[in-house]
Write the structure tokens for this entry.
Amino acid sequence: MGVDVSICIATYRRPEGLSRLLASLERLKLPIGIRIETIVVDNDSDASAASIALSRSGSIEPLHYCVEPRRNIALARNQALSEASGEWILFIDDDEVADENWISEYLKLVEREPCDGAFGPVLPRFEVSGRGWLDIDTFYARRRHATGQPLDVGDLYTSNALVRRRLFDGRSFDPAYGLTGGSDSELFGRMLRSGAFFLWCDDARVVEFVPPERHRLGWLAQRAFRGGCVYSRLARSNASGDALKRALRAVVLLCGFAALAPFAALGGRRPLARVVLRMCTQAGHLWSLIGRSYEEYGTGFSTGR
């Protein structure tokens, strides 16, 4: 019998997170007759996730485990696609857990509304909360929409996504973004420009666990900087707008936020942090526009592509 949904997971040295994720997949409530498979691609050349994946193979059937030894998240995602046989491809990250109705809610939407795929919310949760001012709602929450709302590229990511398998025919994640991040936005953006139609499914929820090392302003600043780098890189690759104008805009905004920072500080750490993160985003834009990058999955700052 064929497979309806292929769950694709790329993992890299997150044993506790992967174990927690696979345990949540065991609790999924599936519609009658729906057939799923789970694919775990280990992006660690030491195959560190093997014991965890294989320990769950009896309770999650079928579960396919393979290794992509080259450190590159785009290559890991492509390996998952090559293993998948389902009509639908369902992505989730190895630091998340799925709601028990995750697949059911997605399938209800795509059966009701003709579309090429759907994306759902990623709800952050602190593993350990030690900084009350650095709260979930202000600094970690992502935007959400009403179920059925059409989406643009800014809402498309592999941390919670259901996409028709045929959209990947002749398309794959670009390894050039494999260390910087953004390969998902780049690929889904290509799909949109080719006429794909994606919807939001607010009830298809996953929870992302935020470890203590990410519950700090320094990590948020890195994320904001990386986001600015990737956004400008994608804009340049799409030939959208003039690079000089974008650079000047980034300089103006960076200077504006810098001037605003002393006044924001009067309101306390939270408003000051918001301004600092906006400065980091604009700095990321500039870093990309002068031909540099930031390798989130690699060595950090890079002097080229």
